[in-house]
Amino acid sequence: MSRVMKVIMMVGALISSSVWADQEAARDTVIGVVDSFRTEIIADKSELANNAPLLAQRIDKILTPVIDFDDFSKKVMGKYYRRATPDQRVRFATVTKDTLLKTYGGSLLELDPDKIKVLPLGPQREGREVKVDVDFTMGDGSPLNLSFFMEDYGNDSWKLSNVVINNINFGLTFRKQFSVMMQQNHNKIDAAIDAWKQSLEKKS
């Protein structure tokens, strides 16, 4: 083997090793979130079940560092984001964050803390996202699979860009729902945001 080929192979191995290390950092972020679910949510299930404000506060503390709600809201609004005013964009992001935390937070109390498993990383698609699969089991024994799609924000900071729950792509589903609400409300963004909030609250 020529010296040039040896150098090329060595560089390729170093790059591959670096990429894998970066992807493992994304998985480590998810492990941290899951561990926080165990210790700060499920462990205090009896208290939090009767204290919705405290539950929302705990979930906010766990998720806010790993979710860019402004970016998530931008993706959900889709083409309508460019038409929205700065105030409407902020309002939509705030409504999305507050309502999601309140609506879906209670489901965390139903998880079995002894049956949560962050799976090893599988093959990844090209791009900035790393897919991290986590298997949960609900208190009634039913399985729940979440795929966290983590995006590298630089400086060892990984944030959730999308989530697929039991093969349902929530980012895509929410985007379609908001588009329908815009059409139903004659393309009036404020009215669509009101309808969006009501729709999320109905899922509680």
From TrEMBL:
InterPro entries: MlaC/ttg2D, Tgt2/MlaC_sf. This is ABC transporter substrate-binding protein. The keyword DNA damage does not apply. Keywords: Signal. It comes from the Bacteria. It comes from Marinomonas arenicola. Residues 1-21 form the signal peptide. It holds the Pfam family MlaC.
